[in-house]
């Protein structure tokens, strides 16, 4: 039932909670949590099942409700510390992680390449071992996925991918929480990706089918997603009875889509390709013309920062745009990741209907 949220407080009886902060957040029957993520790494959603992804979204909604709506103080990470390695600058990843970890009682430590000797004066192996002795987890925002793989192999604490050239899993969890809040369920939604075959798309491809969503992808020729990731995504779609299509026509990908999604065409480190990329992506701007082909309940997502050539103001600032709730949800989902990897806490909010 909509807005009928029940919370188990202090192991007492189930009580009816107040109206939830987001509309259309449907709840199913309360289920005992059987998902255990404590101690694991989060390098890519490829390594997580659909139930595990849903669990992280459930925990995100739980923390958001208890802290933001009810005003509870939950020092679940009291006495714990987090190393934050940033090779690339960030607004949302840094703020969501620092404020979220601190809000849960922990101590985040921000580290840039000017602060540590990551892979230069000190090997990744040595860095991983040192950080393991001083922190409880590491979130690393790096250029190369292979660096994350080394850190995870050598560290004895959870390593979390804050962004790499191949994946951006923490962004996708925020996207899914936003859609869950708006539509009430993820199952059966059609995502229409219009843009680059980049790390954001790769993370969607590694997870959408697992939670029951269809995916329609449009990329310019020469900018398609990684073929190995595409092959695995096709397998996931088959296993989960969802649809996956790839095209070079942005209007074809938009047709019937519930969610129009795009991202920057020029990521950090690709500045020299700007002129070539802008030419290749002509016709890929998301506009109301694009939206006319989408489903009647279409919405729009962009992980930010946004440039006007990617999506025009009419769509970006429209009531259909969920980009700012999406940005806020970076905080609640990263908090849920930290709690799930570092504690035995189980959500008290009724499990959503996914």
UniProtKB/TrEMBL annotation:
Residues 40-181 form the Aspartate/ornithine carbamoyltransferase carbamoyl-P binding domain. Its main location: mitochondrion. It is found in: Mitochondrion matrix. Residues 187-340 form the Aspartate/ornithine carbamoyltransferase Asp/Orn-binding domain. Its EC number is 2.1.3.3. It is an enzyme of class 2 (transferase). GO terms for cellular component: mitochondrial matrix; mitochondrion. Coiled coil: none annotated. Belongs to the aspartate/ornithine carbamoyltransferase superfamily. OTCase family. This is Ornithine transcarbamylase, mitochondrial. The lineage of its organism: Eukaryota, Metazoa, Chordata, Craniata, Vertebrata.
């Amino acid at each position: 039932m909509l807005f009928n949220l029940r919370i188990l407080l202090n192991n007492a009886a189930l009580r009816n909670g107040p109206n939830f902060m987001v509309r259309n957040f449907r709840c199913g029957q309360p289920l005992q949590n059987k998902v255990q993520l404590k101690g694991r790494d989060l390098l890519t959603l490829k390594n997580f099942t659909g139930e595990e992804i849903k669990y992280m979204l459930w925990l995100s909604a739980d923390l958001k409700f208890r802290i933001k709506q009810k005003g509870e103080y939950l020092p679940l990470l009291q006495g714990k510390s987090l190393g934050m390695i940033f090779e690339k600058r960030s607004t949302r990843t840094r703020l969501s992680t620092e404020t979220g970890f601190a809000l849960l009682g922990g101590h985040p430590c921000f580290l840039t390449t000017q602060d540590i000797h990551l892979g230069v004066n000190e090997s990744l192996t040595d860095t991983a071992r040192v950080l393991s002795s001083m922190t409880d987890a590491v979130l690393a925002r790096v250029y190369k996925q292979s660096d994350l793989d080394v850190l995870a192999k050598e560290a004895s604490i959870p390593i979390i991918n804050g962004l790499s050239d191949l994946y951006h899993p923490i962004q996708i969890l925020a996207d899914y929480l936003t859609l869950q809040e708006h539509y009430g369920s993820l199952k059966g939604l059609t995502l229409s990706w219009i843009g680059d075959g980049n790390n954001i798309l790769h993370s969607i491809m590694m997870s959408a089918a697992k939670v029951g969503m269809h995916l329609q992808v449009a990329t310019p020729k020469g900018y398609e997603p990684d073929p190995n990731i595409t092959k695995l995504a096709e397998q996931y779609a088959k296993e989960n009875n969802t649809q996956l299509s790839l095209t070079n026509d942005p209007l074809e990908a938009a047709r019937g889509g519930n969610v129009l999604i795009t991202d920057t065409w020029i990521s950090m480190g690709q500045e020299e390709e700007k002129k070539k990329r802008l030419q290749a992506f002509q016709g890929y701007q998301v506009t109301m013309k694009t939206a006319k082909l989408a489903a009647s309940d279409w919405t729009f997502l962009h992980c930010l920062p946004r440039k006007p050539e990617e999506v025009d103001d009419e769509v970006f600032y429209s009531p259909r745009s969920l980009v700012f709730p999406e940005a806020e949800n970076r905080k609640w989902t990263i908090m849920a990741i930290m709690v799930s990897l570092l504690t035995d806490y189980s959500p008290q909010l009724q499990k959503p209907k996914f």
